[in-house]
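Hi R.,

As promised on Friday, here is the backbone we talked about, encoded as C-alpha cells. Could you run it through your design pipeline when you get a chance and send me back a sequence?
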C-alpha cells in the first residue's frame, strides 16, 4: 500500500500504554487504531453515525477483521491511518486500511461490515443512498451542500440544530434563542448527502455597511470538519453581493481561534451573553 491509495487519513500519536515489553505497539492495539479511523471516516462523509444509521433503518456489524503486519510502530511515533471503501456488495461493505509512519507502510487491515436490522441483527441490503455516499466520497465528490433562504423554507432544519446545540448542549434559555429576526433575515444550512442539517447560521440586515453573522451552530459530532466555515463563507458572499463592506459576529470565546483562521479580528472588549463569554470579531469583505 501507498499513501496515494487513500483520500482519508486519521492521525494519531502512539501512547505509552500502547507499547509492550518489546518497546513496540502491542499487536491488538492496531485493530483499535483502524476502528478509531473508521469512526473518523464517517465524519469525513459528513454523517453523524448514530443519527445516520437511524435514518437509514439499520446499523453496521463487523463480520471480519484481518491485520497484515509489515513493520512496528514505537512510542511517540506520529502515525497516519488511511481508510478507504473498496467494495459495496448487497448487504456488506469492505474497507481497507493502511497505517503509515511518514511514507513507510507499517500495517494493513481489511474490515468487512454487514448492514443489518439492529433489532434482529439479520442482514439487509445496503441502502442506495449510503452506497452513493461511499462511492462518491472515494471518487472525490463533495459530501455537503450549503443553501440559503428564508425561515419558511430552512427554519425547520436550522431550528432543530440550534435547539440541539444552544438549548440542549449549552443550556441557553429558550426565551433567548428565538427572536424577531428569524422570520426576516437570510439563513444558511449545510446538509449532508442524506439531507440532514449539519451546520447553520444567519445573516442579519446591515447597519452602516456592516452586516452581522449569528446563530452559528454545527452538529457536535461533526465539528472541525469545515462545515461551519462553509456556512460562514456562503453568508459572507451574500453580504458582499448586497454591497456590505464588513461582517461582524459575536464569537463565543471558545470559538475565537476558529474565526481568526477565517480572517476575523477582535473588535472591542469581551462581554457575556446568555452567561457565556463572547468577543466581537470583524472581517472586511473584498470582491
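Update: got your reply. Pasting your designed sequence below so it's all in one thread:
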Amino acid at each position: 500500500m501507498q499513501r496515494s491509495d487513500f483520500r482519508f487519513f486519521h492521525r494519531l500519536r502512539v501512547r505509552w500504554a500502547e507499547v509492550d515489553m518489546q518497546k513496540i505497539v502491542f499487536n491488538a492495539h492496531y485493530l483499535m487504531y483502524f476502528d478509531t479511523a473508521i469512526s473518523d471516516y464517517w465524519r469525513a462523509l459528513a454523517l453523524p453515525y448514530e443519527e445516520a444509521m437511524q435514518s437509514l433503518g439499520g446499523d453496521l456489524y463487523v463480520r471480519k477483521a484481518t491485520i497484515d503486519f509489515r513493520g512496528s510502530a514505537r512510542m511517540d511515533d506520529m502515525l497516519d491511518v488511511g481508510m478507504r471503501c473498496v467494495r459495496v456488495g448487497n448487504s456488506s461493505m469492505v474497507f481497507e486500511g493502511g497505517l503509515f509512519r511518514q511514507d513507510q507502510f507499517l500495517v494493513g487491515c481489511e474490515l468487512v461490515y454487514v448492514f443489518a436490522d439492529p433489532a434482529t441483527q439479520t442482514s439487509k441490503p445496503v441502502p442506495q443512498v449510503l452506497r452513493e455516499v461511499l462511492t462518491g466520497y472515494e471518487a472525490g465528490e463533495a459530501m455537503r451542500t450549503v443553501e440559503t433562504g428564508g425561515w419558511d423554507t430552512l427554519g425547520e432544519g436550522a431550528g432543530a440544530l440550534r435547539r440541539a446545540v444552544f438549548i440542549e448542549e449549552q443550556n441557553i434559555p429558550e426565551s433567548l434563542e428565538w427572536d424577531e429576526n428569524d422570520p426576516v433575515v437570510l439563513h444558511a444550512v449545510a446538509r449532508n448527502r442524506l439531507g440532514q442539517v449539519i451546520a447553520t447560521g444567519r445573516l442579519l440586515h446591515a447597519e452602516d455597511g456592516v452586516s452581522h453573522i449569528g446563530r452559528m451552530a454545527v452538529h457536535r459530532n461533526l465539528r472541525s470538519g469545515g462545515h461551519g466555515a462553509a456556512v460562514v463563507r456562503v453568508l459572507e458572499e451574500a453580504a458582499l453581493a448586497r454591497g456590505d463592506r464588513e461582517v461582524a459576529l459575536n464569537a463565543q470565546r471558545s470559538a475565537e481561534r476558529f474565526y481568526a483562521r477565517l480572517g476575523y479580528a477582535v473588535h472591542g472588549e469581551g462581554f457575556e451573553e446568555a452567561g457565556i463569554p463572547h468577543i466581537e470579531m470583524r472581517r472586511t469583505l473584498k470582491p
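One thing I noticed while checking it: Residues 201 and 232 are 7 Å apart (CA to CA).

Thanks again,
M.
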